[in-house]
Protein backbone atom coordinates (compact mmCIF):
# COMPACT_ATOMS: atom_id res chain seq x y z
CA UNK A 1 0.00 0.00 0.00
CA UNK A 2 1.18 3.51 -0.80
CA UNK A 3 0.79 6.52 1.44
CA UNK A 4 1.24 10.27 1.09
CA UNK A 5 4.53 11.88 2.06
CA UNK A 6 2.82 15.21 2.67
CA UNK A 7 3.86 16.91 5.94
CA UNK A 8 6.34 14.12 6.77
CA UNK A 9 10.04 14.77 7.34
CA UNK A 10 13.17 13.67 5.51
CA UNK A 11 16.80 14.05 6.56
CA UNK A 12 19.30 14.20 3.69
CA UNK A 13 23.01 13.86 4.48
CA UNK A 14 24.84 15.36 1.51
CA UNK A 15 21.99 17.58 0.35
CA UNK A 16 23.79 20.27 -1.64
CA UNK A 17 24.69 18.46 -4.85
CA UNK A 18 24.28 15.38 -7.00
CA UNK A 19 21.94 12.66 -5.81
CA UNK A 20 21.26 14.22 -2.43
CA UNK A 21 20.10 17.44 -4.07
CA UNK A 22 17.82 15.65 -6.55
CA UNK A 23 16.28 13.51 -3.81
CA UNK A 24 15.58 16.54 -1.63
CA UNK A 25 13.79 18.23 -4.54
CA UNK A 26 11.72 15.14 -5.32
CA UNK A 27 10.78 14.73 -1.66
CA UNK A 28 9.74 18.38 -1.38
CA UNK A 29 7.61 18.05 -4.53
CA UNK A 30 5.69 15.36 -2.66
CA UNK A 31 5.13 17.68 0.30
CA UNK A 32 7.90 16.31 2.52
CA UNK A 33 9.69 18.74 4.82
CA UNK A 34 13.47 18.59 4.41
CA UNK A 35 16.34 18.78 6.86
CA UNK A 36 19.59 18.88 4.93
CA UNK A 37 23.21 18.56 6.00
CA UNK A 38 25.99 19.69 3.67
CA UNK A 39 29.65 20.59 4.09
CA UNK A 40 30.58 23.36 1.67
CA UNK A 41 32.81 26.38 1.29
CA UNK A 42 31.58 29.89 0.55
CA UNK A 43 31.88 29.15 -3.17
CA UNK A 44 28.73 27.03 -2.88
CA UNK A 45 26.66 29.63 -1.00
CA UNK A 46 24.67 30.78 -4.02
CA UNK A 47 23.90 27.24 -5.16
CA UNK A 48 22.82 26.18 -1.68
CA UNK A 49 20.65 29.29 -1.32
CA UNK A 50 18.96 28.55 -4.64
CA UNK A 51 18.29 24.98 -3.54
CA UNK A 52 16.80 26.10 -0.25
CA UNK A 53 14.56 28.61 -2.03
CA UNK A 54 13.45 26.01 -4.59
CA UNK A 55 12.55 23.54 -1.85
CA UNK A 56 10.61 26.21 0.05
CA UNK A 57 8.68 27.09 -3.10
CA UNK A 58 6.89 23.74 -2.79
CA UNK A 59 5.36 24.90 0.47
CA UNK A 60 7.46 22.70 2.76
CA UNK A 61 9.63 23.52 5.74
CA UNK A 62 13.37 23.52 5.07
CA UNK A 63 16.25 23.48 7.54
CA UNK A 64 19.86 23.29 6.35
CA UNK A 65 23.05 22.76 8.33
CA UNK A 66 26.45 23.51 6.78
CA UNK A 67 28.52 21.15 8.88
CA UNK A 68 30.47 17.89 8.74
CA UNK A 69 27.84 15.14 9.02
CA UNK A 70 30.53 12.64 10.01
CA UNK A 71 31.40 14.59 13.16
CA UNK A 72 29.87 13.31 16.40
CA UNK A 73 29.06 16.74 17.85
CA UNK A 74 27.27 17.79 14.64
CA UNK A 75 25.21 14.61 14.61
CA UNK A 76 24.25 14.94 18.26
CA UNK A 77 23.23 18.58 17.85
CA UNK A 78 21.02 17.90 14.83
CA UNK A 79 19.41 14.81 16.34
CA UNK A 80 18.68 16.73 19.54
CA UNK A 81 16.71 19.33 17.58
CA UNK A 82 14.77 16.91 15.39
CA UNK A 83 12.22 15.86 18.01
CA UNK A 84 11.00 19.43 18.44
CA UNK A 85 11.30 20.22 14.75
CA UNK A 86 9.18 17.21 13.73
CA UNK A 87 6.71 17.70 16.61
CA UNK A 88 7.66 14.26 17.91
CA UNK A 89 6.63 12.50 14.69
CA UNK A 90 10.21 11.60 13.75
CA UNK A 91 11.54 10.99 10.26
CA UNK A 92 9.94 9.30 7.31
CA UNK A 93 13.25 9.17 5.43
CA UNK A 94 16.94 9.17 6.24
CA UNK A 95 19.08 9.40 3.12
CA UNK A 96 22.82 8.84 3.61
CA UNK A 97 24.51 10.33 0.55
CA UNK A 98 27.96 11.28 1.82
CA UNK A 99 30.59 11.10 -0.91
CA UNK A 100 33.89 12.18 0.58
CA UNK A 101 36.90 9.88 0.61
CA UNK A 102 40.46 9.53 -0.54
CA UNK A 103 41.28 8.58 -4.12
CA UNK A 104 44.87 7.61 -3.40
CA UNK A 105 46.06 4.21 -4.64
CA UNK A 106 47.04 1.58 -2.11
CA UNK A 107 50.58 1.31 -3.54
CA UNK A 108 52.75 4.10 -4.98
CA UNK A 109 51.83 4.60 -8.63
CA UNK A 110 55.35 5.74 -9.50
CA UNK A 111 58.64 6.52 -7.84
CA UNK A 112 58.41 9.50 -5.51
CA UNK A 113 54.71 9.07 -4.76
CA UNK A 114 53.12 7.61 -1.65
CA UNK A 115 50.49 4.94 -1.28
CA UNK A 116 47.42 5.34 0.89
CA UNK A 117 47.96 6.14 4.57
CA UNK A 118 46.15 4.76 7.59
CA UNK A 119 44.38 8.06 8.36
CA UNK A 120 43.19 8.35 4.75
CA UNK A 121 41.80 4.82 4.75
CA UNK A 122 40.14 5.26 8.13
CA UNK A 123 38.61 8.63 7.18
CA UNK A 124 37.08 7.20 4.01
CA UNK A 125 35.60 4.27 5.89
CA UNK A 126 34.27 6.45 8.68
CA UNK A 127 32.61 9.07 6.44
CA UNK A 128 31.24 6.85 3.69
CA UNK A 129 30.25 3.77 5.73
CA UNK A 130 30.46 3.91 9.52
CA UNK A 131 28.69 7.26 9.80
CA UNK A 132 25.47 5.56 8.65
CA UNK A 133 25.57 3.34 11.74
CA UNK A 134 26.19 6.28 14.06
CA UNK A 135 23.31 8.31 12.63
CA UNK A 136 20.91 5.38 12.88
CA UNK A 137 22.03 4.65 16.44
CA UNK A 138 21.34 8.20 17.59
CA UNK A 139 18.07 8.55 15.69
CA UNK A 140 16.79 5.23 17.03
CA UNK A 141 17.80 6.12 20.59
CA UNK A 142 15.84 9.37 20.25
CA UNK A 143 12.76 7.50 18.91
CA UNK A 144 13.00 9.41 15.64
CA UNK A 145 12.65 6.34 13.39
CA UNK A 146 9.00 5.33 13.78
CA UNK A 147 7.31 2.36 12.09
CA UNK A 148 7.23 2.97 8.36
CA UNK A 149 10.46 4.97 8.29
CA UNK A 150 12.88 4.30 5.46
CA UNK A 151 16.67 4.45 5.60
CA UNK A 152 18.59 4.67 2.33
CA UNK A 153 22.35 4.49 1.81
CA UNK A 154 23.98 5.27 -1.51
CA UNK A 155 26.34 2.61 -2.82
CA UNK A 156 27.81 1.97 -6.26
CA UNK A 157 29.00 -0.74 -8.60
CA UNK A 158 32.46 0.24 -7.41
CA UNK A 159 31.86 -2.17 -4.54
CA UNK A 160 32.41 -5.04 -6.99
CA UNK A 161 34.45 -3.39 -9.75
CA UNK A 162 37.98 -2.04 -9.98
CA UNK A 163 39.26 1.43 -10.73
CA UNK A 164 42.89 2.27 -9.94
CA UNK A 165 42.11 5.14 -7.54
CA UNK A 166 38.88 3.76 -6.09
CA UNK A 167 40.20 1.17 -3.64
CA UNK A 168 39.41 2.93 -0.37
CA UNK A 169 35.98 4.02 -1.58
CA UNK A 170 35.24 0.52 -2.88
CA UNK A 171 36.09 -0.92 0.53
CA UNK A 172 33.85 1.65 2.19
CA UNK A 173 30.96 0.79 -0.12
CA UNK A 174 31.35 -2.91 0.73
CA UNK A 175 31.23 -2.04 4.42
CA UNK A 176 28.24 0.24 3.84
CA UNK A 177 26.26 -2.58 2.24
CA UNK A 178 27.15 -4.86 5.16
CA UNK A 179 25.97 -2.17 7.59
CA UNK A 180 22.69 -1.93 5.67
CA UNK A 181 22.05 -5.66 6.01
CA UNK A 182 22.78 -5.63 9.74
CA UNK A 183 20.70 -2.51 10.43
CA UNK A 184 17.80 -3.92 8.41
CA UNK A 185 17.64 -6.96 10.67
CA UNK A 186 18.02 -4.99 13.89
CA UNK A 187 15.41 -2.40 12.89
CA UNK A 188 12.89 -4.94 11.54
CA UNK A 189 11.05 -5.25 14.89
CA UNK A 190 10.50 -1.48 14.76
CA UNK A 191 8.99 -1.67 11.27
CA UNK A 192 11.83 0.37 9.76
CA UNK A 193 13.24 -0.57 6.35
CA UNK A 194 16.92 -0.13 5.45
CA UNK A 195 18.21 -0.48 1.91
CA UNK A 196 21.24 0.45 -0.15
CA UNK A 197 20.57 2.04 -3.53
CA UNK A 198 23.18 1.19 -6.15
CA UNK A 199 23.01 4.03 -8.62
CA UNK A 200 24.50 3.60 -12.05
CA UNK A 201 27.38 5.78 -13.14
CA UNK A 202 26.12 9.33 -12.54
CA UNK A 203 27.93 12.54 -13.47
CA UNK A 204 28.01 14.08 -10.02
CA UNK A 205 30.77 16.28 -8.53
CA UNK A 206 31.96 13.22 -6.60
CA UNK A 207 32.38 11.17 -9.79
CA UNK A 208 34.25 13.98 -11.54
CA UNK A 209 36.91 13.88 -8.82
CA UNK A 210 37.85 10.33 -9.85
CA UNK A 211 40.87 10.57 -12.21
CA UNK A 212 39.56 7.83 -14.51
CA UNK A 213 36.00 9.14 -14.74
CA UNK A 214 36.07 10.26 -18.40
CA UNK A 215 36.78 6.84 -19.91
CA UNK A 216 34.74 5.05 -17.26
CA UNK A 217 31.69 7.22 -17.98
CA UNK A 218 31.98 6.74 -21.75
CA UNK A 219 32.16 2.97 -21.36
CA UNK A 220 29.23 2.92 -18.95
CA UNK A 221 27.00 4.95 -21.27
CA UNK A 222 27.93 2.69 -24.19
CA UNK A 223 27.24 -0.52 -22.30
CA UNK A 224 24.07 0.54 -20.48
CA UNK A 225 21.06 -1.10 -22.20
CA UNK A 226 19.34 2.31 -22.10
CA UNK A 227 22.34 3.88 -23.90
CA UNK A 228 22.71 6.67 -21.36
CA UNK A 229 24.13 7.28 -17.91
CA UNK A 230 22.05 7.37 -14.77
CA UNK A 231 20.92 10.86 -13.73
CA UNK A 232 20.24 11.94 -10.12
CA UNK A 233 16.54 12.19 -10.88
CA UNK A 234 16.44 8.42 -11.59
CA UNK A 235 17.55 7.78 -8.02
CA UNK A 236 15.23 10.44 -6.62
CA UNK A 237 12.25 8.75 -8.25
CA UNK A 238 13.19 5.45 -6.60
CA UNK A 239 13.56 7.11 -3.19
CA UNK A 240 10.13 8.71 -3.42
CA UNK A 241 8.50 5.48 -4.61
CA UNK A 242 10.03 3.31 -1.90
CA UNK A 243 9.37 5.95 0.76
CA UNK A 244 5.68 5.96 -0.15
CA UNK A 245 5.21 2.32 0.83
CA UNK A 246 3.82 1.44 4.24
CA UNK A 247 5.60 -1.90 4.42
CA UNK A 248 8.99 -2.67 5.92
CA UNK A 249 9.14 -5.96 3.99
CA UNK A 250 11.45 -4.53 1.33
CA UNK A 251 14.55 -4.28 3.48
CA UNK A 252 18.16 -5.37 3.71
CA UNK A 253 18.74 -5.14 -0.02
CA UNK A 254 21.15 -3.52 -2.41
CA UNK A 255 18.74 -2.23 -5.05
CA UNK A 256 20.06 -1.38 -8.49
CA UNK A 257 18.91 1.97 -9.87
CA UNK A 258 21.05 1.79 -12.97
CA UNK A 259 18.97 0.75 -15.97
CA UNK A 260 20.58 -2.72 -15.78
CA UNK A 261 24.02 -1.17 -16.30
CA UNK A 262 25.81 -3.57 -13.97
CA UNK A 263 24.22 -6.57 -15.66
CA UNK A 264 25.42 -5.43 -19.06
CA UNK A 265 28.88 -4.26 -17.99
CA UNK A 266 31.50 -5.91 -20.18
CA UNK A 267 28.99 -7.96 -22.17
CA UNK A 268 29.64 -8.27 -25.88
CA UNK A 269 26.05 -7.72 -26.93
CA UNK A 270 25.77 -4.45 -25.03
CA UNK A 271 28.94 -3.01 -26.49
CA UNK A 272 28.13 -4.24 -29.98
CA UNK A 273 24.61 -2.97 -30.00
CA UNK A 274 25.50 0.47 -28.75
CA UNK A 275 28.21 0.80 -31.38
CA UNK A 276 25.95 -0.09 -34.30
From TrEMBL:
Signal peptide: none annotated. Keywords: Oxidoreductase. CDD domains: SDR_c (cd05233). SUPFAM superfamilies: NAD(P)-binding Rossmann-fold domains. Belongs to the short-chain dehydrogenases/reductases (SDR) family. This is SDR family oxidoreductase.
